[in-house]
Amino acid sequence: MKYFEANYKIVEGISEKNIEELILFSRQDEEVLKFTGDRERFANREKFDQWCEKGRYIYTLVDQEGKLGGIVWFGEKEGAWTLAIRMYGAARGRDWSHDFLSESMKKLMERKVFKTSAVKDWWLECSEDNMPARKLYEKMGFKLSGKGKEEGKIIYRRSHDFESEKKN
Prior knowledge:
- The protein is of the alpha+beta class.
- 35% of the residues lie in helices and 28% in strands.
- A hairpin with a 2-residue loop joins strand 3 and strand 4.
- The protein is globular, with a radius of gyration of 15 Å.
């Protein structure tokens, strides 16, 4: 059992309550506002639903009362699996993001959609000045591969061999 699982658990999908919390975090959380496009992506329920229609696979980190502590999502884009992770509230700053992301990736890779996909490599876009996120991605074996499409964004990539990861 991962150390965060004493008080939090990883859930496949996202509940109605957690969608409401996600929308609020996307409007109010300073870190989210600073480093992500979530303010637009999750501006309201309609925007969230439109985003989901793009084929997202969501995992949430929730506490014992079901309160949202984090979200990871995956999708196929540009010939690879793309992903993002957010940590919120009391779950942020506890060094849980590695385990949460790692476990979520493993859960996705156990699903038929991943196993039957010809796409196996990973990529993500990150704010260049988001050092906690960059440290996490590098710890997980992602390598900086170039600039993103927007100013201040960078791209990380990693090969499909996630299971052979050697933890630092």
